[in-house]
């Protein structure tokens, strides 16, 4: 049996931009991507703590160290700059792998920078 489990989470990042006139996706600071073990083009779920919206998109790399969290395309309609979001990726694993799996969890500061 295969089950889908949380692979990675960036918890309570602040939206820095919303660009409606873009093809689509979420742009994430590459430092946050690395820390969360998320790669370019990976599908993620976005949960908006401010309005309750939940939606899926894919990731593109943002400038390293920039703190960028930018929702692009139609997803830009589901956020406002300053909203707090949770970014979650999932992976399929067999039951035994899933029981041993430790997700990558990232808790950025108020400027979307890694806390050391």
Structure description:
The protein has 116 residues and is mainly beta. Helix content is 11%, strand content 47%. It has helices spanning 30-36, 95-100, and strands at residues 2-14, 17-19, 25-29, 43-48, 54-62, 69-72, 84-94, 104-106. The chain has an eight-stranded mixed β-sheet. Strand 4 and strand 5 (54-62) form a beta hairpin. The protein is globular, with a radius of gyration of 14 Å. The model has no long low-confidence stretch (mean pLDDT 97). Belongs to the PanD family. This is Aspartate 1-decarboxylase. The modification Pyruvic acid (Ser) is found at residue 25. It is found in: Cytoplasm. InterPro entries: Asp_de-COase-like_dom_sf (IPR009010), Asp_decarbox (IPR003190).
Structure in a nutshell:
The chain is mostly beta strands. 11% of the residues lie in helices and 47% in strands.
Mean pLDDT figure? 97
Uncertain stretches: none
Total helices: the number is 2
Spatial sequence of strands, sheet with the most strands: 2-6-3-5-4-7-1-8
* Structural class by helix and strand composition: mainly beta
Shape label = globular
Instruction: Give me the Rg, rounded.
Output: 14 Å
Assign a percent range to the helix content.
Answer: 10-25%
Percent of residues in β-strands: over 45%
How far from one another are the termini? Answer: 38 Å
Instruction: Note the run of SSEs as H and E.
Output: EEEHEEEEHE
Catalytic activity: L-aspartate + H(+) = beta-alanine + CO2
Binding site for substrate: 57, 73-75
Active site: 25, 58
Family: Belongs to the PanD family.
